[in-house]
Design brief:
The structure is a homodimer. The first copy, chain A, is about 30% helix and about 25% strand. Chain A is α/β, with parallel strands linked by helices. Chain A has two domains: about 15-180, Dihydroxyacetone kinase, domain 1 (Rossmann fold, 3-Layer(aba) Sandwich), CATH 3.40.50; about 180-320, 2-Layer Sandwich (Hypothetical Protein Tm841, Chain: A,domain 3), CATH 3.30.1180. The longest helix of chain A has 17 residues, at about 265-280. Chain A has a six-stranded mixed sheet, sandwiched between helices. Chain A has a six-stranded mixed sheet with strand order 9-8-7-12-10-11. The first copy, chain A, has a two-stranded antiparallel ribbon with strand order 13-14. Chain A contains eight helices and 14 strands. The model of chain A has no long low-confidence stretch (mean pLDDT about 95). The interface between A and B is large, with 61 and 61 residues.
Chain lengths: ~325, ~325
């Protein structure tokens, strides 16, 4: 295992300390229990959005804490759910009096622990469960579809609505709508290596790829020979289209997400392939996002997400955001 | 070789097409010769900044074209200098009548071709050569020190000055000053693989790293056993400090740059180590930048850059910027 670390036990803490120090103008970090909140403190009278999940997917979720997006993020150890006390403490820290919305990726551990935190909640609260991964219907760590890179769109769009003063039920319903309008699929060219394990999570031959891989290295649809970028994009866009059934002329956000070990040059090449396929299918790419946002440690590969947009969600996507990983208009 | 590509010959073109499509609000791409300019066209009455170099370092330089930073970027093939006709055409496209400033990383091919382009120039022009890499005094492709991640600081700070109306000589002198105030050093845990070569540029054993590596995989100071992050950071910060000799209490920008194959989690951990070392040395980290900005294809590893800041360069760093890869205040 080749990693820039000091010890397996301190990876998360040291990485979060670095993150908080580098972005002290945007976030504040608490330890014991561990959570990240906006530097400015709770926002009075507005719904507070909290997400979380295992570490190893950076910048998700702590990188999305800030004005116009999340109010708090609770990172677990690498690929391990955070605990209910983290979410409970985060909720107490960001509660602005208008309710708490949990945004939870559909993995059994996350779902269970966020549910326990919800039971501990004193004020009004609601949950949005994301399950945008169209690759498989159930997986190693999930009953039902996995929540992957489409979670970013839910966090951004609902974050903008909360900032504008939307109430808890409006935020929850909007989150469900964005999740339902989002489809994702991934491909791995290599495995990731979890620091505590020290060896690759799975093995791929030099000429193989895993189509439909999960963001923890879970199996996808099939293991096949490495194909050309155009063919990979065609299978991914095809599967997403089949799931979303966009109307001709539908507007969409096209997101090509790197898993951590793939250079930007290849991500833009994949974007080029995917954008052409969208145009061929009559989908209008109204907005784009290319880069490493929902990663899987050092895995080589990428995912493609399409989020169908209406006038409201497009406007909320464009609204100002100031986080460590996503920033415009501020 | 495992890459998300269609063919080795079309990597650059397809990747640039994707980049231009994803950021059509910010940039415009020309082919034959290849260059990227701001979508808004030339800025009348202001100095125009042009940079360029081999591809494979994305988002450098095309990702830094936009308001408050570069006016044009000329990408060559992977790790290959662009040609003088690219710079000449780019200069004609962005000339606002106040002169052209070339920002050139110190590699023999780049230096020669930008010099030829300068000879072709019709109006006033000047050049800033960056050579911030403190690892080695000369290298495979350079007479003298290499220009690496510190180039970003030159482009950002001079870009802000040009935007504010600074004249050509002021921009040139400022660029020299920022370059002289910047020191960088890199470490590789793995080699990169150039698509046209198909095999790794160099070989590292499973327990080895290359201290002081160049951004094309050029040899560094020495090949040693993989060390802990704190020790790696200490050697890098030590070398940079020795070069810059900052006064006690000096303000600096601390930049941890990923080479393309290293996850953000490790980059923030390295930032944490480096920031502590700066504090120990009496350097005040006034600004931070962590992420993949000056990459080496899929190389695992990172570089650390320190840029000493004065009141003027700090203010120019903070000035609004709207590019694909760096954006704030817009």
């Amino acid at each position: 295992m080749k990693k820039l670390i000091n010890s397996v036990d301190s990876v998360l803490r040291e990485s979060l300390d670095g993150f908080a120090a580098a972005h002290a103008d945007i976030v504040k970090l608490s330890h014991d229990p561990t959570f990240v909140v906006r530097a400015g403190g709770p926002v009075k009278g507005k719904v507070a959005l909290i997400s979380g999940g295992g570490a190893g997917h950076e910048p998700l979720h702590a990188g999305f804490v800030g004005e116009g997006m999340l109010h708090a993020a609770c990172p677990g150890q690498v690929f391990t759910s955070p605990t209910p006390d983290q979410m409970h403490a985060a909720a107490a820290a960001v509660d602005g009096g208008a309710g708490i919305l949990f945004i939870v990726k559909n993995y059994a551990g996350d779902v269970m622990n966020f549910e326990m935190a919800a039971e501990l909640a004193e004020g009004p609260m609601a949950t949005v469960l994301t399950n945008d991964d169209v690759a498989v219907e159930k997986s190693t760590f999930s009953a039902g579809r996995r929540g992957v890179a489409g979670t970013l769109m839910v966090e951004k769009i609902v974050g903008a609505a909360a900032e504008a003063g939307a109430d808890l039920e409006t935020c929850r319903a909007l989150g469900e709508r964005v999740n339902a309008a989002s489809g994702s699929m991934g491909v791995a060219l290599t495995s990731c290596t979890v620091p505590a394990a020290g060896t690759p999570t799975f093995t791929l031959a030099d000429d193989e790829m895993e189509m439909g891989v999960g963001i923890h290295g879970e199996p996808g649809r099939r293991r096949v020979k490495l194909a050309q970028a155009d063919d990979i994009a065609a299978e991914m866009i095809g599967a997403i289209q089949q799931d979303l059934s966009p109307k001709a002329g539908a507007a969409a956000l096209l997101h090509v997400n790197g898993f951590g070990g793939t250079p930007l040059m290849e991500l833009y090449l994949m974007y080029n392939a995917a954008a052409k396929l969208c145009a061929d299918a009559g989908v209008v790419v109204a907005r784009s996002l290319v880069g490493n946002y929902t990663t899987s440690l050092d895995m080589a590969g990428c995912s493609i997400t399409l989020t169908l947009l209406d006038d409201e969600t497009l406007r909320l996507w464009d609204a100002p955001v100031k986080t460590a990983a996503l920033r415009w208009g501020c």
